[in-house]
Amino acid sequence: MNAPVLDRRKVLSGGALVVAFAMTSRLLGDAVGGGEGGAGPKVVRPDLEGSLKTDPWLDAWIRIDAEGQATVCSGKAELGQGIRTALLQVVAEELDMPPAAITFITADTGRTPDEGLTAGSHSMQDSGTALANAGANVRMLLIGAAAKRLGIPVRELDTTGDGHIAARDGRRVSYGEAARALSLHVEAVADAPRRSPQSYRTMNRDFRRVDIPAKLTGGEAYVQDMRLPGMVHARVVRGPSYGTRLTAPDIAAARKMPGVLRIIQNGQFLAIVARKEWQAIQAMRVAQTSDYVKTGPDLPGEQGPRRLQSLASREIIVEQSDDGPKASTRTFKGSFSRPWYSHGSIGPSCAVAHLHGGELTIWSHSQGVFDMHRATAELVGLAPDKVRVIHTPSAGCYGHNGADDATAEAGLIAMQLPGVPVRLQWMREQEFGWEPCGCGMVTQIEASIGPDNKIAHWKYEVWSNSHNNRAVGAGGYAVAQEIVPGFPMQVPAPIPMPEGDGDRNANPLYVFNNMDIRYHFVPEMPMRVSALRSLGAHLNIFTMEAALDELAKAGGVDPLAFRLAHMQDERARAVMLRATDAFGWSKRLRGDGRRGCGMAFARYKNRGAYCAIALEIEIERETGAITIHRVNAAVDAGQPANPNGIRNQIEGGIIQSLSWAIHEDMTYDTSKRTGFDWGTYPILRFDQVPGSIDVDIVESAGLPFLGAGEAAQGPTSAALANAIADAAGVRLCDMPLTPAKVKAAIGNAG
Amino acid sequence: MTFELTVNDKTHIVDAEAETPLLYVLRGELGLNGPKYGCGLGQCGACTVQLGGKAVYSCLTPLITVGEREVRTVEGLGGVDSMNPLQQAFADEQAAQCGYCIAGMIMRAQALLDENPHPTEAEIRSHMQPNLCRCGTHMRILRAIRRVAAVPAGAAA
């Protein structure tokens, strides 16, 4: 994607440097997990695809026993996004065997390949691609073994889909028989034949998710549901939010509470261990009866996210182009922002840890079990090979929430209780108060169109902290600065392009003239922050798509036509057309002061899934409340593995993005966060979800997988703001677009 | 203290303090997974169970207030191979992402359907208002409930 873009444009001074950067950063960008977390495992076979680059041995991924049963491993974790099922479909398809004959093991540092983080919409790209190619390799070897056994050429054999290889003369060899003659401890080859999309039996079907039945019937589906023999319950005792400390926790009183087994104290870290969960909670409440002091950095204050603009920053040139002097007829200038967001997981973070025989096993819902087993080992003072982290599902996290911290803390507690499994769960207010939030951000745009209604100048700036503060060493955990001796806080660093960080999607996929795009990376964090679904792409797309609508309006051009006039990528054009056709864009009602329509588009990271959104809203002028009548989305995620899973992710992304845009704002005072429950941090409820959401999948058969989990976040918030502008004639720039703000803006607009 | 408690048609004797929230009795004493800890404040509905046929927040229901009323959790509706019509509708609609909220959603929706087998779309949305879903699975949850209630799709706001 990047090379032609750079070729097409004249690069300003330092051009060679820009090109070199794009080439090296492509390698970084292709690193597992989308560049979040640690560096990930080393690339040893750059000629292979997906995570086979780092782990080319077939038996690391697939083993087939003498009965023809397969065991398949993936380093990616089920986060509620349905990846377990999609990956299972991919490998079953390429092995050409029934999914039911496969035992699937995911994200376990003791058993599966290290595939870095389950993040950045990279799981289909990393693991899906690896499993597809590993499956194709194994299928090729099985056919070869059968050919040898039957004494006929490979071309006379094919797999049957039920775990057999059949010859034209009717003879059959089972996978088990063929596997007995094979070693899969061989490296993958790059050109193993893949099954053709026309003959798919398992992939591109709405295969039912394998994890859902247990979730509907009270099965043991989550880390919260684990009950190991002799397990005890822990709670941590903390100040109201990150950057505070209790001055005098009442430890003596807590110790006398019923069921309390141990009080763990290490520096400022304090945890209660009790026989039963409710006992641990009651003792925690007693211990927590204390004043607190602020120990952390100053919170953002009245400036909100614009505080970031007054902090020291490092300027990163994202993109610059010089297309010569261009006349400007109309100019749009604006500054946009979003506040800090909570991940808002419905289940507060939880982990189970067990020190047994000098080895620590932790069951965690972290997205980064591989980084974690090294970082936790450093924290608790064990060798990394003595710490095993097994991913176990929990409530959706949508990024780096409290999961990693809770896991590290469970590990610290378990180290004090050899032989005793410990279950730690954070309380609701601890999750809101201590998790890393999604970054507050600010953008500034000044863009013009010329007489031809094409964008002549595009000057864009974005201010943000790093969206990647995931622990890669002990210092990345909040508890690391509480214990003695502690670990210094991890130094924040931005994820470089092409994946991007605060500047993710700040570089347009559209073709604009005379671009100057800069990322002001702010190292100092007024609020603890890290990755939240779509990282900086959310506000960058929000800003870009708002500016496009304003410039289209200024030029008297339809917003869809204006976008298409600036877009050369055929797949992008196709999703825009598909969504707007389904919506009935050309016949849409026009903004009448109350009702209105908006659209927006983005290709996530300019290298992931394509997504366009069109929606219709109605504003109650008396209150500013917004009703969303209907939403149409179109998405191109490459070759779909499970279309229903893609729809589910896009539908969910739309609702979550509407919630961010309309409601969400992590509030604070001078010493602490003040959003601590669902009353002080409201999210969208049933009465506000759209009347309908229809997701259309634009199929790209045989093309590379593109993860769809984050694709809707930017376009949805942007389409909403565009619909408000269409309905009421006011451009709202600072999220959340609350009823009060909408009402005030309408009032101001007369 | 010991209490006699009827949960999913079975009677149990539990030994717990009177003020223990029902949630912790169900999870900790009876080993049930359906009711989930979400907020402990009656704001999210992840802990929803039926008490005497009504949907309640088990995190805010002290054990001593249960009395003789029967408790039903999602386990009491059906298992993996014996799903009740509402659970089956959730499966058919693939109405879950992370699924942490779903047992509570099912229990609240079932309480509505038990009382009013054919609610309108507006009644369904209003009834489900107390329960939060962060994954944004709302449209599918509504479809699943509609399936059982036989409400035509698109009769929405």
The description of the largest β-sheet of chain B is: 3 strands, antiparallel
The multimeric state of the shown protein is heterodimer
- What's the number of helices of chain A? 17
The gyration radius over C-alpha positions of chain A equals: 27 Å
Strand percent estimate of chain B: 5-15%
Q: Kindly report the average pLDDT value of chain A.
A: 94
Q: What's the N-to-C terminus distance of chain B? A: 50 Å
- Percent of residues in beta strands of chain A: 15-25%
Uncertain parts of chain B: none
What gap, in angstroms, lies between the N and C termini of chain A?
Answer: 46 Å
* Largest interface between protein chains, with number of residues from each side: A-B, 63 and 59 residues
GO molecular function (chain B): 2 iron, 2 sulfur cluster binding; metal ion binding; oxidoreductase activity
Protein name (chain B): (2Fe-2S)-binding protein
InterPro entries (chain B): 2Fe-2S-bd, 2Fe-2S-bd_dom_sf, 2Fe-2S_ferredoxin-like_sf, 2Fe-2S_ferredoxin-type, 2Fe2S_fd_BS, Beta-grasp_dom_sf, Diverse_Oxidoreductases
Domain 2Fe-2S ferredoxin-type (chain B): 1-77
